[in-house]
Amino acid sequence: MSTDYQQAREALGGRLRELRFSCPEGRLTGQQLSHRLGWPNSKVSKLENGKQTATPEDLRAWADATGQPEVYPELTARLTGFESHIRSWRRALASGFKPMHENLSSEIERTKDLWVWEESVIAGMVQTPEYARHVITRYSQLLSATGDIDDSVRARMQRQEWLYRSGRKLHVLMWEAALRSLICPPSVLAAQLDRLTGLIGMDTVDLGIIPFTASVKIVPANGFWVLDDRLVVAEDWHAEIWLDDADNIALYTKVWRTLRESAVYGAEAHNVINSARRALNPH
Predict the structure, then answer these.
(1) Fewer CB within 10 A of the terminal residue: the chain, N end or C end?
(2) pTM
(3) Which CATH number fits domain 89-279: 2.20.25, 3.30.870, 3.40.190, 1.10.150?
(4) Statement: residue 134 has pLDDT above 50
(5) Mind listing the pLDDT tens digit for each residue in 200-222?
(6) C-alpha distances out from residue 233 to 80, 168, 182, 206, Å
(7) Which of these, 279, 262, 274, lies nearest to 198 by C-alpha position?
């Protein structure tokens, strides 16, 4: 998990521990607080040690249970702060692209099922090296980041070794726009589309494409990854957002499943990819 994010969780956990220690009626043990809240003992420990992200409801309950409801606005401000911007791309990229890729790769390594949605770019787990290089370079230019593009491409390719291990499954959905966006030269995109056709039928990859002509129940936007049932990683222009609370994981899982209802697979997906491929060489 990103250093900034984990440090922020640990800082919030430390503050929660302070509240438990400073309860007006006397210091509470973790067991006493968990009993008062009706929570498992492990939840109090995880929150205090930065192993789990608190929800606003958790913070309200904690403030009330420790007899200090007036601190709730402070707690939610802390939560909002690190949920919304501490993984700022500019801050994270101060150390280069490679550490960012390694942080996510370490989480993927311990993941059995990975659900991915991308609306306008080929999913990183199935990118070719040259396609990845162009995507990373574009972001580097946008964010005025310099340095380790080659190392970053290598790290992204090493991450794909996960696809060839038994017991793993990549469930990837992409909008047709991802097949046609010329973020790279046509020849690079053509090779990338050839790679996608080769993935269809692979036992560790379930590849779905939502055609432009498909009826959709929600707007096909905002790329994200769901790692097992424990973590969501979503991207925006300003930041990468890591969410591990049950409500958000359930929401993103529901979004993925809703999008999947509009996707085509197998031979139909192959046809959509081939159509995009032919469009690169109209003559």
Answers:
(1) C
(2) 0.70
(3) 3.30.870
(4) yes
(5) 989 999 999 999 999 999 999 88
(6) 16, 18, 25, 19
(7) 274
pLDDT at residue number 99: 58
CA angle 89, 92, 96 (to 5 degrees): 105
pLDDT at residue 52 in the model: 87
CB 134 within 8 A of CB 121: no
Strand pairing category for 205-210 and 224-227: unpaired
Measure the CA–CA gap between 167 and 94, rounded to whole angstroms.
36
Q: To which H or E segment does residue 169 belong?
A: strand 169-175
DSSP result, 135-164: HHHHHHHHHT--S-HHHHHHHHHHHGGGGG
Nearest to 173 by CA among 111, 218, 128: 218
Grouping H, G, I as helix, E, B as strand and the rest as coil, residue 64 is: helix
**Cα 180 from Cα 195, distance rounded (Å):** 14
- Domain boundaries in the chain? 3-84, 89-279
Residue range 3-84, CATH number: 1.10.260.40
Burial group, residue 46, by CB count within 10 angstroms (0-12, 13-18, 19+): middle
CATH topology match: 3-84 vs 89-279:
no
CA distance 280 to 184: 12
Query: Looking at the predicted structure, is the pLDDT value of residue 93 above 90?
Result: no
